[in-house]
Design brief:
46% helix, 8 helices, alpha/beta, globular, 5-stranded parallel sheet, two-stranded antiparallel sheet, binds magnesium ion, binds BIS(adenosine)-5'-pentaphosphate, single chain
């Protein structure tokens, strides 16, 4: 199916399934690309780069990095990937997370006439999220996410594609995870309001992937059909 340019922001609490649903969406919508700021930061941390070292201090405490740093990081990536164009299609997972970031993003996209044209909020009950995190394992270099119950790796403890070992994220420790959840809900309302006023905010609710994914896919196909 041929679709108009898709530029989605995925909003959702930690553990709501942003990474997992993005992977599934990319398999179904061939023109789509995605970028996760969390994945970028984890790669930078592994490489001990300057931004990686800075990020470690915030992430280990469950805190957000400063807006100006994140906006700059994201803009560099968008430009490097050649996504600053009116014809491009992409999905952002984990950015923006604050009003400040949303405004910076618009400022950076304006000159290229490629603003965000859809914002999807994933609404998943907190009690479901907490159980998922206990079962989450990740392949840091690629950002691929596994869940021991929902989508286990083919070989226990190994990434399906590379065979490399999976790890637990440091910020998934219960006390840190709780801080991340709190920070998400603190920033959420003003961010939703910002996109609601632009009339591009949609919400998809549900407890399981069988419920959430078809709704998300349907929304994208309906909204962007030519
Ligand atoms: P980031 O990596 O973006 O973390 P997050 O937003 O907290 O979200 P998660 O990656 O934890 O969850 P997810 O929604 O992707 O869920 P997943 O698919 O894995 O950011 C990490 C940190 O970096 C931040 O805390 C911050 O410090 C910093 N940072 C990043 N961006 C920033 C920004 N813009 N500004 C400032 N700081 C920033 O799913 C979770 C689990 O559930 C998995 O095990 C999965 O398999 C399972 N699962 C998923 N969907 C389903 C389903 N539908 N049914 C059953 N199980 C499911
Ligand atoms: Mg994620």
């Amino acid at each position: 199916m041929s679709l108009k340019p898709i530029r989605i922001v995925l909003l959702g609490a930690p553990g709501s399934g942003k990474g997992t649903l993005t992977t599934r969406l990319l398999k179904n919508v061939s023109q789509l690309n995605s970028l996760s700021t969390g994945d970028i930061l984890r790669r930078e941390m592994q490489q001990n780069s300057e931004i990686g070292i800075t990020a470690k201090n915030y992430i280990k405490n469950g805190q957000l990095l400063p807006d100006h740093l994140m906006a700059q990081l994201l803009n560099n990536e968008l430009s490097k990937l050649g996504w600053l164009s009116n014809e491009s299609s992409w999905l952002l997972d984990g950015f923006p997370r604050t009003i400040g970031q949303a405004e910076e993003l618009d400022k950076n996209l304006d000159p290229f006439n490629c603003n965000v044209n859809s914002v999807v909020e994933l609404d998943v009950p907190p009690e479901v999220i907490l159980e998922r995190i206990e079962n989450r394992w990740v392949h840091i270099p690629s950002g691929r996410v596994y869940n021991l119950q929902y989508n286990p790796p083919k070989v226990p403890g190994k990434d399906d594609i590379t065979g490399e070992p999976l790890s637990k994220r440091d910020d998934d420790k219960p006390e840190i995870f709780k801080l991340r959840l709190d920070s998400y809900f603190k920033e959420l309302e003003p961010l939703k309001e910002y996109y609601y006023k632009k009339n591009i905010l949609r919400t998809v609710s549900g407890e399981t992937s069988d419920i959430v994914f078809p709704k998300l896919l349907d929304l994208v196909l309906q909204e962007f059909k030519k």
